[in-house]
Design goal:
Radius of gyration: 19 Å
Distance between the termini: 41 Å
EC number: 2.1.1.-, 3.4.23.43
Helix content: 55-70%
Function: Plays an essential role in type IV pili and type II pseudopili formation by proteolytically removing the leader sequence from substrate proteins and subsequently monomethylating the alpha-amino group of the newly exposed N-terminal phenylalanine.
Keywords: Cell inner membrane, Cell membrane, Hydrolase, Membrane, Methyltransferase, Multifunctional enzyme, Protease, Transferase, Transmembrane, Transmembrane helix
Order of helices and strands: HHHHHHHH
Number of strands: 0
Oligomer: single chain
Largest sheet: none
Main location: membrane
Number of domains: 2
Number of helices: 8
Shape: globular
Strand content: under 5%
Subcellular location: Cell inner membrane; Cell membrane
Length: 251
């Protein structure tokens, strides 16, 4: 049992390392396959021992082995976050099709989160293929019905589209497409609840940032990461949250 836990965690680290490549290269319209991994400062091609997730960062004290340039903490953070969320997904769904599909969605959410935090964009190259692929997957597996996946795309995206129109730019179209992608996997009900959870968390964090003068009231705070957080909460604890809410209504 523990051997599977370790395997899933290591797999998450490896995939997280690849996600770092996507996060860095996709916004700059660079190939995520070629050239191989290299230092962004000195352009030296990295060896295998330079690419060991987390450990290479620790052993080199967060610096390039060849030019001594500081390496962003984003790299081990993404690797560890991916590994941890994959492990929790395994604990929740075991080795099942749900585990594979939800882990795939989580990986895309991580990419969208870090790109949105840095560039305040959510790439169409992630959301459009994601919507199509996840919808097609609904034809072959029972994690969601075809109807629920289609409604998740249309109604979840439509819900945020209305907010985007009413707010006149307060909500980005990238967020709309991200919600549609999430809806194709977990359906409209879970997606909308996840958006509300993300909004609540986002409001709290925004108030804290404003309170400490880190952000101004007029500063735009990316909403994509909060959609991602709410989605992950619903993937792992959606049934628990809904049952808890229904129990409250029963009183």
């Amino acid at each position: 049992m523990y051997s599977i836990d370790i395997t899933v965690f290591i797999l998450g680290l490896i995939i997280g390392s690849f996600l770092n490549v996507v996060i860095y290269r996709l916004p700059e319209n660079k190939s995520i396959i070629w050239p191989g991994s290299h230092c962004t400062n000195c352009q030296t091609n990295l060896k295998i021992f330079d690419l060991i997730p987390v450990l290479s960062f620790i052993f080199t004290k967060g610096r390039c082995r060849y030019c001594d340039t500081k390496v962003s903490y984003q790299y081990p953070a993404v690797e560890l976050l991916t590994a941890l969320l994959f492990l929790i997904s395994y604990w929740r769904y075991s080795l099942s099709i749900e585990f594979l599909i939800y882990s795939g969605l989580i990986a895309l959410l991580i990419v969208c989160t870090f790109i949105d935090l840095k560039y305040q964009i959510i790439p169409n190259k992630i959301t459009y293929p994601g919507i199509i692929i996840f919808f097609i997957i609904s034809f072959f597996f029972n994690h969601i019905t075809i109807k629920s996946s289609l409604l998740g795309i249309v109604l979840s995206g439509g819900f945020l589209l209305v907010i985007a129109i009413v707010s006149r730019g307060g909500m980005g179209i990238g967020d709309v497409k991200l919600a549609a992608m999430v809806g194709s996997v977990i359906g409209v009900k879970y997606t909308i609840i996840g958006i509300f959870i993300g909004s609540l968390i986002g409001s709290i964090i925004s108030l804290i940032l404003i309170g400490f003068n880190i952000k101004d009231r007029k500063d735009r705070i990316p909403f994509g990461p909060f959609i991602a957080i709410g989605t992950v909460v619903m993937i792992f604890y959606g049934n628990v949250i809904i049952n808890w809410y229904l129990d409250l209504l029963a009183f």
